[in-house]
Design a protein that fits this description.
InterPro entries: MATH/TRAF_dom (IPR002083), TRAF-like (IPR008974)
Distance between the termini: 27 Å
Pfam family, one: MATH_2
CATH topology of the largest domain: Apoptosis, Tumor Necrosis Factor Receptor Associated Protein 2, Chain A
Number of helices: 3
Radius of gyration: 32 Å
Largest sheet: 6 strands, antiparallel
Structural class: mainly beta
Helix content: under 10%
Number of domains: 2
CATH class of the largest domain: Mainly Beta
Strand content: over 45%
Number of strands: 22
Protein name: MATH domain-containing protein
């Protein structure tokens, strides 16, 4: 199929290069003398980012480009089967070309100046460098691009979508109505299972307290574990929270308090302390913590984050 190419871009050459070969495609060509007689070399197809690509090298410059300069080799990245894309669909890529240098034993890197991200579509299926490498530079043995009539070229193609996720994070200190008293009715000191408070709301979120006798660690069974749980967090959203948790005693001077914090998500929605207070203080019949079979708490949300997520088009220069 015919490929459309945009106007001629400028190039950037990283002569220092790197020792690692290109991640997606490499071709060794021999003999170079025969390559230079070809008008066009088309590589085999390779896969990158879920799409298929190929390279197109014009050893004497692109014959289809107006004002072609035959003193430069042209190298392009071609998208195979662009008709699989929707009419308005774009595939955003960051591509690099490579030429092996036998003198330094490194891969010299060629990129498009000011075009770190480029978009392929049904209309734009061919991107690259009409002035990839001058024939004078390529043919001079002192420059190291040829050895024993061999040369090596390659490409890397990093693919992303034309949309990206944008996130706006707002940190709210001391949100309105941030102190809540809640209770666990019918609290049992003999229960081996977690016990929960009723749900309460602070900010846009509902919360619960989860409490149990510490189940592991060196202090197993010797502490009350208390965790603040966010309810109904949206998938892929992380929320930061800082809070003071208090276990209330009928004598307020004996309240137990700890400050907790953490990043919560729909997968991990707890933050708290596994050694919140001694278990022996909880189970004392006259300890003042369990009253009328209720264990009472006060939760003070100190800091909470609010996240707004949206899709945004990727900007390309």
């Amino acid at each position: 199929m015919a490929h459309r190419v945009e106007q001629e871009p400028e190039r950037v050459i990283d002569l220092a290069g790197r020792s690692l070969p290109p991640a997606h495609y490499e071709v060794e060509i021999n003999p170079v003398t025969e390559l230079l007689n070809l008008r066009t070399y088309k590589s085999g197809v390779f896969e990158a980012g879920g799409y298929e690509w190929s390279l197109c090298l014009h050893p004497q410059g692109d014959p289809d480009l107006k004002g072609n300069d035959p003193v430069f080799m042209s190298l392009y990245l071609l998208m195979e089967e662009p008709n699989k894309l929707g009419d308005d669909e774009r595939i955003v890529v960051d591509y690099k070309f490579f030429a092996f240098n036998y003198n330094s034993w490194t891969y010299v890197i060629f990129t498009e100046k000011g075009k770190e991200l480029r978009a392929f579509s049904r209309a734009t299926t061919k991107l690259g460098l009409p002035k990839f490498l001058s024939l004078e530079t390529f043919n001079d043995p002192k420059n190291g691009y040829c050895m024993d009539d061999h040369c090596i070229f390659g490409a890397e193609v990093m693919v992303s979508k034309s949309k990206r996720k944008m996130e706006t994070l707002t940190i709210v200190k001391n949100p309105p109505q941030n102190t809540i008293t809640c209770k666990i009715p019918q609290f049992s000191t003999s229960s081996k299972h977690p016990q929960y408070s009723k749900a309460f709301k602070v900010g846009e979120w509902e919360w619960k307290l989860k409490v149990f006798r510490q189940r592991n660690g060196a202090q197993q069974g010797k502490s009350l574990s208390v965790y603040l749980q966010a309810q109904g967090l949206r998938p892929r959203i992380k929320m930061y929270v800082e809070a003071k948790l208090r276990v209330l005693n009928k004598n307020p001077t004996k309240n137990k308090e700890k400050e907790v914090n953490g990043w919560l998500s729909d997968i991990y929605w707890n933050c708290g302390a596994k050694e919140f207070m001694p278990w022996k203080d909880v189970e004392k019949s006259n300890g003042g913590f369990v009253n009328n079979k209720e264990l009472a708490f006060e939760v003070e949300i100190l800091v909470i984050s609010d996240v707004l997520r949206r899709d945004e088009s990727v900007l390309m220069t």
